[in-house]
Write a structure and sequence with these properties.
The radius of gyration is 22 Å and the shape is globular. The chain has 2 domains: 189 residues, MFS general substrate transporter like domains (Growth Hormone, Chain: A), CATH 1.20.1250; 202 residues, MFS general substrate transporter like domains (Growth Hormone, Chain: A). The longest helix is centred in the middle third of the chain and has 30 residues. The chain contains 19 helices and no strands. With 440 residues, the chain is an all-alpha fold. Helix 5 packs antiparallel against helix 6 and helix 9 runs antiparallel to helix 14.
């Protein structure tokens, strides 16, 4: 794995962003112990062996799509509710402790999923998973930024974080193959949560070895200070709603992401249907046969999506202005989702998988564009809050959309559901269309 990290060509700067003084500095930063620890964190974090098989795991327990939608809604709603208290906890007691609690919560969630098959108990597991997400969200980025501050390398934050993030993307690709191997070897989806505990335990040990200085300046627990912080966050949240164009930009980004996240896992039953229709590995169980194809499909998706994300700037240049790129990609995404539904409905599963690949690529092309556009609409003083609002919007839309999608899938099938949601995206595109607007 470290050989992969060493193969990354680490350029310290881009001439468009750094000043003349920076251009005279060394062309490579030292890949020291902390660089590898940060990279190892991302690699291990993305070894969630259950992700490529989550819907299939629930279906194997005879859960309806609506029941799955409720589980996902509980997770997203809880993560939203816990985000601010989790941030206060990290600032009060330390970012490292917050990360350790996060991974402890994840591991408890995995244990429950491994040992139980009760739907009410799974609701508790989703709450624990949401707590892990809330405690982790943004905290590790803050640890990296604190390290760069201490080492006087803050001007390299984009390059440094980008290269540690490459380890996460590599982890996602490897995760697909390992998860497929686990299911193929065991013939069951039951063990993928239990095996996921191992990389998370290793990551917990890795996080515990981070130096205490990365916690930054702790504010200590003060009731009045905590209330003041929550009130200040609320005021910033409400102030953002006073500018309609800003709200439209936030809804454009969050709604696209929500539609993508709610529908992306429906790829699993589509790939499974195709795998079981092909005359290969007939001596093996259905779960084993589908695992081989699912692992390969997700491996390709993550590799291609990673490449797409790195080339989003070139994509924007070919399309034109940033608002134009955002509007066009929203329409293309709606078309992809509708087409995937149509192909699935008529049992053209190979075509549906190909269209889903396009949807994944588009999401990774689009995300850097929308973040850049939102940053042009919001004052730098409230930038972090603005991006947090975008994340909150995404979760709120998913809380509604996930159960609706599940109910539609139970009533009309996966293909019709994807088609309906794609048509809904197409109608929504007119309401969330963005235009260029300079900051005051």
């Amino acid at each position: 794995m470290f050989g992969y990290f060493n193969s990354i060509n680490v350029d310290l700067y881009n001439s468009r962003y750094l000043n003349t003084t920076m251009k005279k500095t060394s062309a490579h930063f030292t890949k020291n112990t902390m660089f590898y620890k940060f990279s190892l964190y991302g690699f291990l974090k993305n070894l969630r062996f259950f992700e490529p098989f989550l819907i299939l795991f629930f279906r194997d327990l005879d859960f309806s799509f609506f029941q799955m939608g409720i589980l996902f809604a509980v997770r997203d709603f809880s993560a939203n509710l816990l985000e601010i208290p989790a941030g206060v906890l990290a600032d009060t007691f330390g970012r490292r402790k917050s990360m350790l609690l996060s991974f402890g919560s994840y591991i408890l969630s995995f244990i429950i999923f491994t040992l139980s098959d009760s739907y009410p108990v799974f609701l508790l597991a989703m709450l624990l998973f949401a707590l892990g997400d809330a405690l982790r969200s943004g905290t590790h980025k803050a640890l990296i930024l604190e390290y760069l501050n201490i080492k006087n390398l803050r001007h390299l934050k984009v390059s440094y974080y980008g290269h540690t993030r490459a380890a996460s993307q590599f982890g996602s690709a490897i995760n697909s193959l390992l998860a497929a191997g686990l299911v193929f070897y065991s013939g069951s989806y039951r063990y993928i949560f239990g095996v996921s505990i191992l990389p998370y335990l290793l990551d917990l040990i890795n996080l515990a070895s981070y130096p205490a200085e990365l916690d930054g300046e702790l504010i200590g627990f003060r009731k009045e200070g905590t209330i003041k912080q929550i009130r200040a966050t609320g005021r910033i949240f409400l102030a953002i709603f006073k500018e309609p164009r800003t709200v439209r930009a936030l809804i454009n980004s969050s709604s696209f992401t929500a539609f993508f996240k709610v529908t992306k896992d429906y790829l699993q039953p589509i790939v499974t249907t195709l795998a079981l229709s092909l005359p290969f590995l007939l001596a093996y169980q259905d779960a084993q046969r589908s695992a081989v194809l699912l692992g390969g499909v997700y491996f390709i998706i993550y590799l291609v999506s990673s490449y797409a994300s790195r080339n989003s700037a070139q994509f924007q240049q070919k399309i034109g202005q940033l608002p134009q790129a955002i509007n066009i990609t929203f329409l293309i995404g709606a078309f992809f989702l509708f087409s995937a539904g149509l192909a699935t409905h008529y049992e053209l599963n190979a075509l549906a998988i190909f269209v889903f690949l396009g949807f994944y690529i588009l999401q990774n092309l689009r995300k850097p564009l929308t973040v850049a556009f939102i940053s042009d609409q919001i004052s730098s003083q409230v930038m972090a809050a603005g991006l947090s609002v975008e994340s909150q919007f995404t979760n709120m839309i998913m809380v509604v959309l996930a159960p609706v999608a599940g109910a539609l899938a139970d009533l009309f099938g996966v293909g019709a559901t994807l088609g309906i949601l794609g048509a809904g995206m197409l109608l929504l595109s007119r309401l969330v269309k963005v235009a260029e607007q300079q900051r005051d």
